[in-house]
Amino acid sequence: NEAKKHKNAVAYHDIYLTEEAKKRQNLVYDLRQAIDDKQIDIVFQPQYRLSSGELTGLEVLARWTHDQYGNIPPSVFIPLAEEQHFCEDLTALVLEKAAKQLNESQLLGNMVKRVSVNISAVEFNSVDAIARIDTYLQANPEFARYLCLEITETAALDDIIECARVVDTLKRHGVTFSIDDFGVGYTSLGIFNRINVDEIKIDRSFIQAMEKDHRAKAITAGIIGIAKGLGIHVVAEGIETRAQLALLKQLDCEYAQGFYLGHPAPLEQLAIVQSV
Ligand code: C2E
Ligand code: MG
Ligand code: MG
Ligand code: MG
After folding, report:
1. Rounded to the nearest whole angstrom, what is the distance from the C-alpha of residue 267 to the centroid of ligand 1?
2. What is the mean pLDDT of residues 171-197?
3. Is the pTM of this model over 0.90?
4. Which keywords does UniProt give here (predicted)?
């Protein structure tokens, strides 16, 4: 009886997996279609300089509204895109839309001096994908000089020498580089000796824990100190409260981004607050 129960459980599990697998397969297909049809949208989240409160830049974030399932978050479709090697095309689309919208709004170079775009680790470690970004930057020099490419620690981990080379190559076009979600990975601080980064973004887990957790606060303060010492920008991610903002100012954090300062939104809806 016990064995039978177990067998049923396994059988049920198989059906469940099959359904999940089917749904996933459809999602992959739909994602490919959405990228090809340029149905992936972008939103922009503002970044501010804390000392003056002025707007300094915008981060571009991809959005996918599925006909059937509605809004599918990047935490779902970005891993799918990575696994299916769709990231190259996704990045091309994100860059194209961001450049077009920012140029039309005439914000670029006026209110907006920096545009940050996320590059996935999978893409960053692909020779073909990098060649394509290189070609794009070469063809769009006036946009390139406003661009900041955000990579994660994992992108650098695979082959730090190759990563350093890619960063230097792309920087010739005027782009800058940021290490996103800094502090959650396993990177050693030696990364700063090897890779010529311009910015680090402190992961929001530290920012959100820092009021109650003295370790998170010490880590945040330490990252800010390292960035200052290296002469690179430091951005705090995920500020949700006035108290977090006050604490970051107290720690002399240079830049900040988060729901408290501004939610990601389509450019035409983005009530760009020039200063906070
Ligand atoms: P990320 O690059 O670290 O982007 C910041 C994420 O935090 C965004 O989530 C943003 O909406 C969210 N966020 C901003 N402020 C707050 C806050 O105060 N509180 C909280 N809880 N969250 C906040 P989103 O848009 O869901 O994107 C998640 C991740 O997906 C991004 O993390 C990035 O790694 C990836 N992603 C998004 N768009 C793209 C893209 O175009 N290409 C690639 N390769 N990855 C992307
Ligand atoms: Mg980012
Ligand atoms: Mg981040
Ligand atoms: Mg992230």
Report:
1. 16
2. 92
3. yes
4. Membrane, Transmembrane, Transmembrane helix
Ligand 1 pocket, residues with Cβ under 6 angstroms: 45, 61-62, 73-75, 78, 87, 90, 94, 118-120, 150, 180-181, 204, 238-240, 258-259, 264
Beta bridge partners of 65: 71
| Residues in contact with 218: Cβ distance below 8 Å, sequence separation at least 6, in sequence order | none
Q: Is 99 exposed, middle or buried (0-12, 13-18, 19+ CB in 10 A)?
A: buried
Q: What is the mean pLDDT of residues 210-232?
A: 96
245 or 18: whose pLDDT is higher? 245
Average pLDDT on 138-164 reads 92
What residue owns the CA closest to ligand 1's atom 30? Answer: 74
With 0-12 / 13-18 / 19 or more C-beta atoms within 10 angstroms meaning exposed / middle / buried, residue 194 is middle
Please tell me the distance from the alpha carbon of residue 98 to that of residue 87, in angstroms, as a whole number: 16
- Give the ligand 1 atom nearest the CA of 81: 44
